[in-house]
Specification:
Helix 3 (32-51) runs parallel beside helix 6. The chain is globular and about 50 Å long. It contains 7 helices and 2 strands. By secondary structure, it is mostly helical.
Length: 151
Amino acid sequence: MMNYTRETTIQAVKDLTIEELDFLYDEEANSIGMLLGHLAAVEKTYQIVTFENRDLTEEEFSRLQAGLDLGSLGQEHFKGKTIEDYLQELSDVRNTTIEKFKTLPDEWLYEQTPFWYDRPANNFFKWFHVFEDELSHRGQIRIINKMINKK
C-alpha cells in the first residue's frame, strides 16, 4: 500500500518545474515542494520512532523541522529544488523503510508503545499514518496543480 501510494504521488508530480514546485497560492500556503519535503520528513521521523523506538534528538529535529512544521520555515527551506531532488529524497527514505521492514518479524507490527497523547498504538497504526498522511497531501498537491494550471 505504501509503495502504491508513493507511485501515485510520483505520477502527480514527476513533470513539475521548479516554478510549479515553489508556487504559493497565498502567503501562508504550502507549495508542492514543501509537501514533498514533508512526506520525506514524516517518514524519516517514523523510522526513528518505530525502528529505533525513541524520540528525535535535537539535531534530528532541527534537520527535519522545516519538513515537519512547514509554515514560513518550510517556505524558506523548500525553494528552488528540482523534482529530481525531491524524488531522490523520497526514494532514499523509502528504500531505508523497505529494507528495515524486510528484517522485522510480522509480530513487530503489533507491538504497542505509548503514542499520541501517551495512548498505546501499534506499529501497524503508526505506519498506516505515514501513508495516510501521504494520501491526504497528494490530494492537496493535485488541487495546487489545478490552481497552477489555471493561472
